[in-house]
Specification:
This protein has four helices and eight strands. It is an alpha/beta fold and 186 residues long. The chain folds into two domains: 67 residues, Ubiquitin-like (UB roll) (Roll); 90 residues, 2-Layer Sandwich (Translation Initiation Factor IF3). A four-stranded mixed β-sheet has the order 2-1-4-3. It has a four-stranded mixed β-sheet with strand order 5-6-8-7, covered by helices on one side.
């Protein structure tokens, strides 16, 4: 009553290159460890050249005819690939947008705390979305809200520029700021 599993023998797992004995194609296009083209050679000859140098034979392009293989250190290849993926993940986190809410009647001390928080976000490389909520009769004084927002950005210790200028929405005013690259502290 066991389930039948299809054989995965000889097939490369997704995102995993075939190495050495896993490569079954009779003819291969060979690239040496320095990136030089060695042309189309037999499977056995390619494996022999790789073992002579003390490195692995790795299939880089399995879908081409004939498949392209490269002589390289497979462990080092995996390490650099993972390192690059980690680096890309860290870079993608830098594009976060953090939010800070303001009000027309927000007190000076509260604005100072929010300003420090915005500066911390900007130093980390994030963009900051400023949101000024207008309630009730405050909606008649959008110009005062715009002044509050402009003053908030002007008083930042870091030089920030508008990524998205102040625009009016149904609930109030919104703007996105980012660190000015010319004057960044790095």
């Amino acid at each position: 009553m066991g389930k039948s599993h299809s054989s995965n023998r000889g097939k490369a797992k997704p995102n995993k290159a075939r190495v050495n004995e896993q490569i079954k194609a009779p003819e291969l296009r060979l690239i040496d460890e320095n990136g030089g083209q060695l042309g189309v050679v037999s499977n056995q000859e390619a494996k022999q050249k790789a073992s002579d140098v003390g490195l692995d034979l790795v299939e880089v392009s399995p879908n081409s005819q004939p498949p392209v293989v490269k002589i390289m250190d497979y462990g080092k290849f995996l390490y650099t690939k993972k390192k690059q993926e980690r680096k890309n993940r860290v870079k993608s986190k830098k594009n976060e947008v953090k939010g800070i809410r303001l009000g027309i009647n927000t007190e000076e001390h509260d604005l100072l705390i929010k300003r420090k928080r915005a500066e911390k976000f900007l130093k980390k490389g994030s963009k900051v979305q400023l949101e000024l909520i207008l309630k009730g009769r405050e909606k008649a004084h959008r110009s005062k809200g715009r002044e509050t927002m402009e003053e908030f950005v002007r008083n930042l210790e870091l030089q920030a520029t508008y990524d998205q200028p102040i625009k009016s929405g149904p609930r109030g005013l919104m703007a996105t700021i980012k660190l000015d690259q010319k004057n960044s502290p790095e």
